[in-house]
Design a protein that fits this description.
The protein has two domains: 48 residues, Ribosomal Protein L9, domain 1 (3-Layer(aba) Sandwich), CATH 3.40.5; 101 residues, Methane Monooxygenase Hydroxylase, Chain G, domain 1. It is 59% helix and 14% strand. Strand 2 and strand 3 form a beta hairpin. With 172 residues, the protein is α+β, with helices and mostly antiparallel strands. The protein is built from seven helices and five strands. Helix 3 packs parallel to helix 5 and helix 5 runs parallel beside helix 7.
Length: 172
Amino acid sequence: MLNSTDLSKVHNTGFELEDVKVTFLHDIKINVAGVDVEGKQGEILNIPRWVANVLEYEKHVNIEDTDMVVELKQATVKENVQGEFELATLEPHFYVRLLSYMKKLPKDDYDKVESMLNSLVRKRQGKIIHLADSSKLTADLSQKLTLEERSFYEKIYNTSIDFKKQILGDKK
């Protein structure tokens, strides 16, 4: 099993390889690390996110990303509406996408979004701990978790099983 740091790197790499919509700010024909990119001013294309990040940094394109602050607020509302031990569904790369989005925010906005994120994480973490302590990961529950949360769930579940074995032995 991958440790948390390696898991995060794998998810970030996958995220960076996904296509993202960009709008070209001017006509351009360029090669970015072996990837040929050609577009006309105002044209919208899908290109790998890592290429888009390089081109955006150089002021050649604007990345047309989802407003992750809106998604964070929606996720928080959905989580608060769920029962005490029910989880709302988050897409598998939710946290990776949000952290990538947050890197581009001004300091004050970053701090506000980070505070909202911490609140959501604490709420979901509490629910995951309770669920992992009481049952195996079901397919339904697995679909509601991000990749990071799934790993956390499995660690809590296995730790709980080991703890119970220490106290009760191998009897079921």
